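We include this case.
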Amino acid sequence: MGVVVKPLITEKSNMLAEKLNQYAFIVDLNATKPEIIKDVEEMYGVEVTGVSTMVYRGKRKFRFTKSGAQNGKKSNFKKAVISIKEDQEIDFFESV
């Protein structure tokens, strides 16, 4: 499996895709920018012009249940925002 885990499809990422030709992906925590560029270019057949990465810390979760208080934590994840050439685009829904 490559370093790209899945595309991030939200209202904000759709707005970035329409206006700035940028796409967001959830990637492996240990992935580097050259690995991300190589993987996206191979998967989607586009030319990447830039990458920005962000590491998000998982949020703590706490709830009360019949068996008592439950503690937990969501996992950390890394997000990459990819810029591609002006005349290209990525269609995530082409196989649906």
Observations:
- The mean pLDDT is 93.
- Helices lie at 11-20, 33-44.
- The chain is about 25% helix and 40% strand.
